[in-house]
Write a structure and sequence with these properties.
Layout lengths: L1 H14 L11 E3 L3 H11 L3 E3 L3 H4 L6 E4 L6 H10 L3 E4 L7 H14 L3 E3 L7 H11 L6 E9 L16 H4 L3 H17 L2 E9 L4 E3 L7 E3 L5 E8 L4 E7 L8 E8 L2 E6 L5 E6 L10 E4 L20 H18 L7 H17 L6 E2 L9
Parallel strand pairs: 1-2, 3-4, 4-5, 6-11
Antiparallel strand pairs: 6-12, 7-10, 7-16, 8-9, 10-11, 12-13, 13-14, 14-15
Helix pairs in contact: 1-9, 4-5, 5-10, 8-10
The chain binds nicotinamide-adenine-dinucleotide.
Length: 369
């Protein structure tokens, strides 16, 4: 992910000219010193190293960008906030509720900005969906049907990595990519109040290295399917699998309201489909809205409607929000609170998948309250 982040940090100044600051790429660190050295050479980081404290505690650094495995986010973020840095942190915010809450408290206490990289939610089509819902174009939102299906972990020969160990990742497919669609569900429809779930593991063990006959036990889900109730009374489903045959990056949803409906999939990410119940019956149907500079966030990129944006531009949009939050004191979004609400939902779904009932969500409001 250092690739996508470095690209966005370098590109933001040009795209958001003259409002955006220039991010100087001061120091990149990785436990693997050769990886840090390569990242520095590829992307123009001025220095590299292996100890993250050389970033979180450095006097010449204002912003810390955390792109490490999930169980390391909390220690790095809390130290950075304590040392007066703003923080951009990858999702999921952490691997456990307790550390996620500590991160939230640290951000509240610091007065610094904390952004969680829900990179899909900032996408112009999602923002346009949000705008249509807020304008009442869908009427009362009744149903949300969302999924994130990828096939990158379908192959049983894929070697074991940190994502496959719950103590490190906090969960499997649902915590890894389900987090994105869960965040979008909450962004569009509101807080989830309770969840019921079932999970499946398709690969019980994985090789320790490519081609190795030695293997390690996996203890996370390859797929989780949930039914949710939103606080608004709307009903939903939120599903995820990273072993979904044929699905590449199918982050998709349908939102159904009393007067209209929306459909989206990332595999056609420059389109949003909208149905308006008020259209004449003889020509009604889902219309295909093609993204252009008229849609929120897209105005920073290309001239002609339909030229298209992609994954890389989404990271630029997150960095732009971070920059705006720092410069103007605007509330950061997606924030550490968004990150914590998502973590609470994922952990509740994991718990629900091991029981027969509903699991109620209890949002943490902070140590201070
Ligand atoms: N927003 C997105 O679309 C998206 C996509 C992929 C991954 N992610 C998130 O990004 C994070 C990283 O994922 P990845 O796929 O790049 O992982 P990765 O395993 O490819 O890279 C992680 C890097 O962190 C280094 N590292 C581990 N512990 C460290 C420590 N204590 N100090 C310094 N470096 C350390 C590793 O050596 C490795 O180079 C995860 O939180 C993941 O969930 C987000």
């Amino acid at each position: 992910m250092a690739k996508a982040h470095s690209l966005a940090l370098r590109a933001i100044t040009g795209f958001d000219w003259p409002a955006a600051p220039r991010f100087e790429l001061r120091r990149v660190v990785d436990l693997d010193g050769r990886a840090a050295e390569a990242a520095a050479a590829r992307w123009g980081w001025q220095a590299h190293g292996t100890d993250w404290r050389a970033v979180t505690q450095a006097d010449d650094i204002d912003v810390v960008d955390i792109i490490t495995p999930n169980d390391t986010h909390a220690a790095i973020a809390i130290d950075a906030l304590k040392h007066g840095k703003h923080v951009l942190c990858e999702k999921p915010m952490s691997n456990a509720l307790e550390s996620g809450r500590a991160m939230y408290d640290a951000a509240q206490a610091s007065g610094r900005q904390g952004v969680v990289n829900f990179v899909y939610r900032v996408w112009p089509a999602i923002e346009q969906a949000k705008r249509l819902i807020a304008e009442g174009a869908l009427g009362e939102v009744r149903l949300f049907d969302g999924h994130f299906f990828q096939d990158y972990a379908l192959d049983p020969a894929m070697p074991f990595q940190w994502r496959h160990r719950r103590a490190v990742s906090g969960g499997g497919a649902f915590g890894d990519i389900g987090a994105h669609i869960a965040d979008i569900a909450r962004y569009l429809v509101g807080d989830v109040s309770r969840v019921a779930a079932r999970a499946r593991r398709f690969n019980q063990r994985r090789p320790v290295a490519p081609g190795s006959s030695e293997s390690v036990a996996v203890d996370v889900d390859d797929a989780t399917m949930t039914v949710v109730e939103f606080a608004s009374g709307a009903l939903g489903t939120i599903h995820a699998s990273w072993a979904a045959t044929g699905h590449k990056t199918d982050l998709g949803f349908t939102v159904i309201g009393s007067r209209g409906a929306l459909r989206f999939t990332w595999e056609r990410s420059n389109e949003l489909h909208f149905f308006d119940q008020d259209d004449p019956v003889d020509r009604g149907g889902f219309r295909n809205i093609v993204l252009s500079g008229h849609h929120p966030g897209a105005e920073h990129f290309w001239f002609a409607p339909g030229q298209g944006m992609g994954y890389g531009e989404a990271f630029v949009l997150v960095v732009r929000r971070l920059a705006r939050a720092i410069l103007n004191g605007e509330p950061a979004s997606p924030s550490f609170e968004d990150g914590l609400r998502c973590l609470e939902f994922v952990q509740a779904a994991n718990q629900a998948s091991e029981s027969d009932g509903w699991v109620e969500l209890t949002p943490y409001r902070g140590a201070a309250r």
